[in-house]
Amino acid sequence: MDRLNEAMANGGASATLDDVARVAGVSRATASRAINGGNRVSPAAQSAVDDAVRRLGYSPNPAARSLVRRRTDSVAVVVPEPDERVFSDPFFARTLRGVTEVLSARDLQLVLLLARPGQEEARMLRYLRNRHVDGALVVSHHRSDLAGQLADLALPSVFVGRPWGSSDRVSYVDTDNVAGGQDATRVLVERGCRRIGTIAGPEDMTAGLDRLEGWRRALAEAGLAADAVEHGDFTEDSGERAAAALLARHPDLDGLVVASDLMAAGALRHLKAQGVAVPDQLAIVGYDDLGVAERTEPGLTTVAHPVREMAAQATRLLLDQVDGGTAGTPMRVVFPPTIVRRGSA
Amino acid sequence: MDRLNEAMANGGASATLDDVARVAGVSRATASRAINGGNRVSPAAQSAVDDAVRRLGYSPNPAARSLVRRRTDSVAVVVPEPDERVFSDPFFARTLRGVTEVLSARDLQLVLLLARPGQEEARMLRYLRNRHVDGALVVSHHRSDLAGQLADLALPSVFVGRPWGSSDRVSYVDTDNVAGGQDATRVLVERGCRRIGTIAGPEDMTAGLDRLEGWRRALAEAGLAADAVEHGDFTEDSGERAAAALLARHPDLDGLVVASDLMAAGALRHLKAQGVAVPDQLAIVGYDDLGVAERTEPGLTTVAHPVREMAAQATRLLLDQVDGGTAGTPMRVVFPPTIVRRGSA
DNA sequence: CACCTTGGTGGAAGCGCTCTCACACTTTCG
DNA sequence: CGAAAGTGTGAGAGCGCTTCCACCAAGGTG
């Protein structure tokens, strides 16, 4: 019983399937079956094994298991973004919630891979190449052919937000950001604004570019000038700076389309400091509607997109690939954005 | 060459050490040695292996490796907290930065384990018991004997912030929160405040209780009443609510010690809405100094603690345990807090 | 010149698990 | 009532890797 006593130390971490089988008086095969769902196991054997497991505090060695199963039962959420932003933008929190929802129902572990562009990107790719995880969900990604690289890896992967580059080689879930930008702008046009500027997202993200394109189209269709553009990086501070720059160059602005609520909140801060009345002197439309928009003063009229559902959907697509054992044919799901009206426009 | 061609698909994910050995014309043992640091390997063999690795795009199977090494080369950061807070409080971002700093220098992977108290806690413990990771860093933890449970598991683990319960059985890194609370209160006393209330942290966290105790001691030593207490949960909203409740009950307050800057920002919001002048009518001292304090209006006088360094230190303690192959003797490191003066007091 | 070192190597044993397969031993049905 | 089908079981072959050990060839000692 030496072996068994030893096995019971360490909270049972060192008990092996062999120990369980021996204690239960069955073969390793039967013990394994009993532990994994109990297919084709007699009630007697099942309860003997259950007992042994309990007594030994046995818990299976995941390395051994995934070695033979070729499954790690974990998926990575890749965020190619400095942690500052990840931990301040409600977008990520909401996204992660959508992911965990789906993942925990299947008892899969989430591995968060924060990788600022640079050397960490290589590390991240190595991690994925080594198949530490069964699949990858890429969340906010900047110019780079990550999509192509993942496709080359043949690792199940889904992007949240249309990727740069080889967007035809991977699956992704997105909202129609062009339509969103357009709708936001139309709100201002219909309100009577004639001089509409925009604080756009980063130029190295598709969401940033698409929303900007929507703004352009709406202005073109209204016959208005589309020359007041400033780019931010989706953070509140960048929104404040951009607003300052924009108003310095175009003091006659009476409408502002902002590519994220966080940036809009920054812009609002600047406007308040300058004593500009919102929406009377300058009307503002934001983007996201993840809580920030209801807390600003005045509340932000904004473009809502179903972030949690998108993330959940992306995760489901990923699990389909994982289950199919293939990176499969690229799928895309695009959600429509909707306008939510509050005080700012 | 069939096998090898197949091995080269999938970005080399399916090439095995055997393939490498065959291509390099050496044994599996030599190939393994060459790949892992090249001890006792001739230059010729080394370069043959390097070549083969490159040509095959080989990358080792982590499951197989950790099966025999009994190491996963990853550590968990456990956050027993709803994601809302994790992703809004700068404390976590800063902590994570400290952890990654140390971890990436050693090429260890961080696995973020978000586990709201409840069923997810069981899942989290199971994950740790199964030894999916080499060690655990517990970050913000509420009443519960997690410390004892981890000690029972004999898994290397370190707490950031003194744990509840069996704090003598695990290592931890902390700041002297009693001293911090006391110093914060003294700032107000010295300023001439005679009626000092506090918005304390949650009653199920040691940091919350310790800071409250500091407040009590400082008031006792000044001979002032210590009866104006309201608890928050470290979020901005809870700070706003607590301030409202506190001022309703004690309209004569002229000083306020708040257990986190985020809550202080919330309190400030309430005071502004009520037209209370800070610091003239009511002086405020916050806690943390992680960026929020410099952005409020007025800036917050606050208690600073070295969060990044604490996390880094905790990670180093953890790695020592991991390297020693033992949960070792409990160590504790306590950092002193310092006062940072701004406009609010 | 017999004697150890020393450095480089490959054979082979395992790490802890899953899963195929063959072998009983029932039960069911024409 | 014999054949076919179904049920529970264990032996054993791996999964891909590290590492112990035995071995061989050189080169350095007395």
From TrEMBL, chains A, B:
A UniProt-annotated Pfam family: Peripla_BP_3
Protein name listed in UniProt: LacI family DNA-binding transcriptional regulator
Superkingdom classification of source: Bacteria
UniProt xrefs under SUPFAM superfamilies: lambda repressor-like DNA-binding domains (SSF47413), Periplasmic binding protein-like I (SSF53822)
Gene3D superfamilies, sorted: 3.40.50.2300, lambda repressor-like DNA-binding domains
Gene Ontology molecular function, alphabetical: DNA binding
CDD domains from the UniProt entry: HTH_LacI, PBP1_LacI_sugar_binding-like
Limits of the HTH lacI-type domain: 15-69
Keywords, ordered alphabetically: DNA-binding, Transcription, Transcription regulation
